[in-house]
Every structure is written in structure tokens, then in C-alpha cells.
Design a protein that fits this description.
The chain has 303 residues and is mainly alpha-helical. The protein is built from twelve helices and four strands, in the order αααββααααααββααα. The strands form two sheets. It has a two-stranded antiparallel ribbon. A hairpin with a 2-residue loop joins strand 1 (79-82) and strand 2 (85-88). Helix 2 (45-54) crosses helix 6, helix 4 packs across helix 6 and helix 10 (253-262) crosses helix 12 (287-299). It starts with a helix and ends with a helix. Mean pLDDT is 91; it is low at 10-21. It comes from Rhizobium alvei. InterPro entries: Cyt_c-like_dom (IPR009056), Cyt_c-like_dom_sf (IPR036909), Cytochrome_c-type_DH (IPR051459). It holds the Pfam family Cytochrom_C.
């Protein structure tokens, strides 16, 4: 009896070790292969500036309260409060010590699109790499080159304030296993080039789903409710449903494009709340890109 018990315990121990090993392997940080960042040609700074606006980088990475030209000093420091703790936005200025001035393109790109830190650790999805994962290598490279042209700041953002168990970065591998993907959020039949461009902008650099899609208790998107509206992270009201079954139900594609450019709805209401910053960035895009975003939103299934 004792011998059988010991064998059973031993077998369970082996299974447990194997299970832990499998978890570590499956959930390990997975950067792009180095070749992903090769052969991209000379950086296009004009495109990099456009990608910068698409991504709304300035909205989070400027110093709190900064305005005008000071907004381009990307010293970070914004505190983002969540159910999991408070995240402090980092400095992404070209400063060699406090910012990303000494980073390589691969280090920057893997952080942005794979959620892998410079030290090889998992990053928290407060950086919306779950959306940026859809960005092309060329857009990432051009953005990186543009960021290098901006003013330096030697300010270091405070560390995140994350309690147990969310401060265990190994667990983020499990979160990625469940929720991280670089595949399209929706499959649209007969999507033309304009809709495909809009899908790229909305699902990728524009990261619209980060606010407009509801989440489960682990912070993952409810995939069947893509862009169907969500709780306001600032605490009051709700982020609207922007599928054809929600706020934009009666809007034409032209109405949506005009709203992104001017900040005025068809009813002559003006943009408000956190959307003010988003609309300001959208206004800097080309007319074609704003129209592509509108076409994609109108092509979505109504929720």
C-alpha cells in the first residue's frame, strides 16, 4: 500500500513539473524574429508622423497638463487607474537614459507589437500591444524614426503600482495565451480596399477597441461585442457603441468622417470627454484615411 501511494505521489509530482514546464514554454515572451525588422528601407518621417497621430501617442505620453509644442516632449507620467492597479505611462522621448534613445528598432517594435520588454519580460497591456500587433513593420519603423526627431526629456516615470498577484509578470504569459492575437477582430465579406484600410486603422494603430469594446473580469475583450460600447474607465457614463447598431446608426459614412475631422456630430453636438484628444489626432489624418475608418465602421455587424 505504501509503495503504491509513493508511486502515485511521484507520478503526480512528475505531472505537476511537466505542467509547469509546459506553461512556461507556452506562455514565454515571443518577440518577432530579427528578420522581421530587416529590409524596410529608409524611414519615411512623414508617414511616421501620420502613424504617431493614428496611434494617439501624444495623448498618453505627453506630460500631464502639457499643451502646444510641449505636448511633443514625451516624458510620460500619466497615471492610468484600473481594477488591477495604477499604471504610469513611461517616457518615450529620445533621451538615451530616461527614454528610448538607446533602443533598437527591434526592441521598440517588439515592445509595441508583441508586449515584450527590452529585458525580455512581458509588458502589461496598459500599452495596447493587443491592438498594435496588427501594425506593419514599415509603419512601426517609420514611427520609431519620427519619435527620434522629437525633444528629449530626462524625467523618469514612477513605477507601476500593482499588487499581488497582478505584479507577477509570468502570469501575463497566461493572459496573452488567452487574449493576445494579431488576427483581424472581425471577418468582413466582400471588403474592398477602402474598408480593409479602415480595418487596419481601427483595429491596429487607432486601437479604438481598447475603449469601445467591453471586457471580461480578466481584462480581455468580449470578442462577440467588438466596438459595442464599454464602461468608461474614468468612472462616469459609458463609452458608446460605434457599430451600426449604436450611436452611429443614423449617421452616414460622410457624417462619421466629418465628425473625425471637425468634432461635430450630424446633430451639431461637439465631441467631449476623452474623445476630444482622439478627435484632435484623427483630424491630422488624410481625408482618405478618415473616410476609410468611416467605411469600416459602417461595414461592421450591428451590435
Amino acid at each position: 500500500m505504501a509503495g503504491r501511494l509513493m508511486k502515485s505521489i511521484g507520478a503526480l509530482a512528475v505531472l505537476g513539473v511537466a505542467g509547469v514546464a509546459a506553461f512556461v514554454v507556452i506562455t514565454r515572451p515571443q518577440p518577432h524574429p530579427p528578420t522581421f525588422w530587416e529590409g524596410l528601407g529608409s524611414p519615411d518621417l512623414a508617414n511616421g508622423e501620420k502613424v504617431f497621430s493614428m496611434g494617439g501617442c501624444v495623448s498618453c505620453h505627453k506630460a500631464p497638463g502639457a499643451s502646444g509644442e510641449a505636448e511633443l516632449v514625451l516624458s510620460g507620467g500619466l497615471a492610468i487607474k484600473s481594477d488591477f492597479g495604477t499604471f504610469h505611462v513611461p517616457n518615450i522621448s529620445p533621451d538615451e537614459k530616461a527614454g528610448i534613445g538607446s533602443w533598437t528598432l527591434a526592441e521598440f517594435g517588439d515592445a509595441l507589437t508583441r508586449g515584450v520588454g527590452r529585458d525580455g519580460s512581458h509588458l502589461y497591456p496598459s500599452l495596447p500591444y493587443g491592438s498594435y500587433a496588427r501594425m506593419t513593420a514599415k509603419d512601426v519603423a517609420d514611427l520609431f524614426a519620427y519619435l527620434k526627431t522629437l525633444p528629449k526629456s530626462d524625467k523618469v516615470a514612477p513605477p507601476h503600482e500593482i499588487g499581488f498577484p497582478f505584479n507577477i509578470r509570468l502570469a501575463l504569459g497566461g493572459w496573452k495565451f488567452l487574449f493576445f492575437s494579431d488576427q483581424p477582430r472581425v471577418t468582413l465579406a466582400k471588403a474592398d480596399d477602402q474598408i480593409k484600410r479602415g480595418q487596419y486603422l481601427v483595429e491596429g494603430p487607432g486601437h479604438c477597441g481598447e475603449c469601445h469594446t467591453p471586457r471580461n473580469s480578466l481584462g480581455g475583450f468580449l470578442s462577440d461585442q467588438w466596438l459595442a460600447g464599454a464602461a468608461n474607465p474614468d468612472g462616469e457614463g459609458k463609452i458608446p457603441n460605434i457599430t451600426p447598431g449604436g450611436t452611429i446608426k443614423s449617421w452616414s459614412a460622410g457624417d462619421i468622417a466629418n465628425y473625425l475631422e471637425t468634432g461635430f456630430t450630424p446633430e451639431f453636438d461637439s465631441v467631449g470627454g476623452s474623445m476630444v484628444e482622439v478627435q484632435k489626432n484623427m483630424a491630422k489624418l488624410t481625408k482618405d484615411d478618415r473616410e476609410a475608418i468611416a467605411a469600416y465602421l459602417k461595414a461592421l455587424p450591428a451590435r
